[in-house]
Write a structure and sequence with these properties.
about 280 residues; alpha+beta; Jelly Rolls; Arc Repressor Mutant, subunit A; 2 domains; 10 strands; about 40% helix; about 20% strand
């Protein structure tokens, strides 16, 4: 049996557009099911061995599929990922603010979608996969990913400054109403919503809910607070509100989700502060 999970922060050039890199490899373990949860990051996965198997997507019209590379936009319902005891890959957490630069299109074009990454990135992603599959260590694989992404940043193309500012405000707090956010950036609520749907792939209200859920999920994994305290610290009205929101985003209530996802590597792949965050030099 083999079970590896490693993580690395991106280099300085890439850091404004990428949250983190995660690497995982398991063989000879029990078959499992994992929920790919809504988060403030687009998902780019490059497999190392077997294809990634997705049995259900955020868009229910998308059929189950197997992917050597996967690119997923922001979403508000979980994907379901399965494996038969063997899985491996590198996951890259992409900020929607970097979508135009790194992907060549706004994140809104990928909202609720999972696609084969080469449909968007073309030969680039195939070359990246070939190189990381040939690398012998995680540190070498991560350096390849970082260098190849950095090469795409020669001429960054960002959303309008108002969108960037509004998005960063939501990530800092996650509780601002759309009207307050619009006043902050000097736009009408309707215009801000149109720009958010184009550049981010979610409305400001949905983006705020996802940011708050992501914070609650990470704190739930830390295990330091009761659900009532977690609800209060993350800006929910009460524990019942937290449970309703969590169930909608994760497909199950908080305690059940935590119990079902309590095995590595996938339990922590979406958690930038999870175990293994410094264990990337091997």
């Amino acid at each position: 049996m083999l079970s590896e999970y490693v993580r690395r922060p991106p280099g300085a050039r890439v850091r404004p557009f990428v949250g983190w890199y995660s690497g995982y490899r398991e063989t000879g373990v029990a078959p499992a099911v994992h929920r790919g949860l809504p988060s403030p990051f687009l998902t780019l996965i490059v497999t190392l061995d077997d294809p990634l198997q997705i049995s259900s997507h955020p868009d229910p019209a998308t059929p189950p599929g197997r992917y050597d590379t996967l690119l997923g936009g922001l979403h508000t319902t979980p994907a379901t990922i399965v494996h038969d005891g063997r899985q491996s890959g590198i996951q890259i957490a992409l900020s929607p603010l970097g979508a135009r630069t790194l992907l060549g299109l706004p994140a809104g074009e990928l909202a609720n979608l999972d696609v084969t990454a080469s449909d968007v990135l073309g030969p680039f992603i195939d070359a990246l996969r070939d190189r990381v599959r040939a690398a012998a260590t995680w540190s070498e694989r991560f350096r390849i990913v970082d260098a190849m992404l950095a090469d795409r940043l020669a001429a960054p193309v960002l959303p309008r400054p108002e969108v960037v500012h509004a998005w960063r405000l939501l990530q800092a707090g996650g509780t601002l109403a759309t009207a307050d956010l619009a006043r902050e950036v000097g736009w009408s609520g309707r215009y801000l919503s149109r720009q958010f749907n184009l550049e981010i792939g979610l409305s400001p209200k949905a983006a705020a809910r996802v940011a708050r859920f992501d914070l609650a999920r990470r704190r739930l994994q830390d295990g330091a607070e009761s659900l009532a305290a977690l609800a209060a610290s993350c800006g929910y009205y009460d524990q019942a509100h937290l449970t309703r929101e969590f169930t909608g985003f994760a497909g199950s209530p908080p305690a059940r989700w935590l119990a079902e996802e309590n095995l590595p590597p996938f339990r922590n792949i979406q958690d930038p502060d999870g175990p293994g965050s410094a264990d990337w030099a091997a």
